[in-house]
């Protein structure tokens, strides 16, 4: 497919996804118990006080809707960074252990230090960064010869395999910590670990909005360098690109997007994993705008389904995304060798 038709296809898909996000946002605000009439919801959004409805819309459903959109956007971008950088569709933060690293940092902060609020965000961020650094170290990204084309591919694959192993160890650590705290606290942590928007507030939405406001412009600058990096480390070095600095910058942005989202919503399983490959299928190449829109749509639709599809029971969004992601992961494993991604 030539560049012009591909661009038109990507633009049309992006417009359709944005429309889907708006429709899902309206459904998330209006549907539920009780159902909010459209005219009353619009009145509240225009600043009027409608008894009962104002609280439901402005303090409950709308913050959850905004957090869902922001969290999905961040996870879609984070997953695409790792998948494109490592040339592997399995290299999303929730598969390679970065999400579990952020979760472990937050769980340690909650269970050992009783942290809440900003301290929880910093703990998740440090946990994610430490996990990414450990995986890079063990995978041998800094070994001599890692910049060669074949060696770079080997490092990329080792990164995924080492990440899965580190993630398993972190999962065991979380399980151990849960046995060492009171039952009520363990229940709260377990609910958070599922991934939920039930505790969404305007303050948490502001944290995610600020993170995206800072990190997206940085990512926009790095994306051009990422395209050069995809040519291979030796070629990129020959073109004057600082390969190590670019890799570190991209990984830091990807980890920050993932970790801050985990701190706000808990680990929303497979959102980062789903968005990138789906965007690539639509666009024919990695597409950060499509991945961001797909991530927002996935989280928002998962929350709408979880809140309304099961009579009398509200399921966290993380349960729905996990149910979607697991079969998609199996399909990806059987569809194509991982080494072909990005080539």
From TrEMBL:
Membrane topology: Multi-pass membrane protein
Segments traversing the membrane: 65-83, 95-113, 120-139, 159-178, 205-228, 248-275, 287-307, 313-333
Cited Pfam families: FecCD (PF01032)
Main location: membrane
Localization terms from the record: Cell membrane
UniProt GO cellular component terms: plasma membrane
Keywords for this protein: Cell membrane, Membrane, Transmembrane, Transmembrane helix, Transport
GO biological process, one term: siderophore-iron import into cell
Gene Ontology MF terms: transmembrane transporter activity
Family assignment from sequence similarity: Belongs to the binding-protein-dependent transport system permease family. FecCD subfamily.
Name under which the protein is recorded: Enterobactin ABC transporter permease
């Amino acid at each position: 497919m030539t560049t012009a038709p591909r661009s038109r296809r990507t633009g049309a898909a992006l417009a359709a996804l944005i429309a889907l996000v708006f429709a899902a946002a309206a459904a998330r605000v209006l549907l539920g118990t009780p159902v909010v009439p459209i005219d009353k919801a619009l009145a509240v959004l225009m600043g009027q006080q409608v008894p009962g409805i104002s609280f439901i819309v402005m303090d409950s459903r709308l913050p959850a809707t905004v957090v869902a959109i922001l969290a999905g956007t961040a996870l879609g971008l984070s997953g695409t960074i790792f998948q494109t950088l490592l040339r592997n569709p399995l290299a999303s933060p929730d598969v390679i252990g970065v999400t579990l690293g952020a979760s472990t940092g937050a769980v340690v902060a909650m269970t050992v230090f009783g942290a809440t609020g900003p301290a929880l965000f910093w703990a998740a961020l440090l946990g994610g960064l430490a996990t990414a650094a450990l995986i890079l170290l063990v995978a041998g990204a800094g070994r001599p010869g890692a910049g060669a084309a074949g060696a770079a591919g080997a490092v990329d694959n080792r990164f995924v395999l080492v990440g899965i192993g580190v993630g398993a160890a972190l999962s065991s650590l979380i399980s151990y910590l849960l046995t060492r705290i009171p039952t009520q606290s363990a229940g709260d942590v377990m609910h958070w670990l599922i991934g939920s928007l039930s505790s969404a507030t305007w303050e948490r939405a502001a944290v995610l909005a600020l993170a995206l406001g800072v990190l997206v412009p940085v990512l926009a600058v790095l994306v051009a360098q990422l395209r050069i990096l995809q040519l291979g480390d030796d070629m990129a070095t020959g073109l004057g690109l600082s390969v190590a600095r670019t890799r570190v910058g991209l990984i830091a942005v990807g980890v920050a997007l993932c970790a801050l989202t985990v701190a706000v919503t808990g680990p929303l399983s497979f959102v980062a994993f789903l968005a990138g490959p789906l965007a690539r299928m639509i666009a024919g190449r990695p597409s950060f705008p499509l991945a961001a829109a797909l991530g927002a749509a996935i989280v928002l639709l998962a929350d709408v389904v979880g809140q309304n599809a099961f009579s009398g029971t509200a399921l966290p969004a993380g349960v729905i995304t996990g149910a979607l992601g697991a079969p998609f992961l199996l399909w990806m494993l059987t569809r194509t060798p991982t080494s072909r991604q990005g080539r």
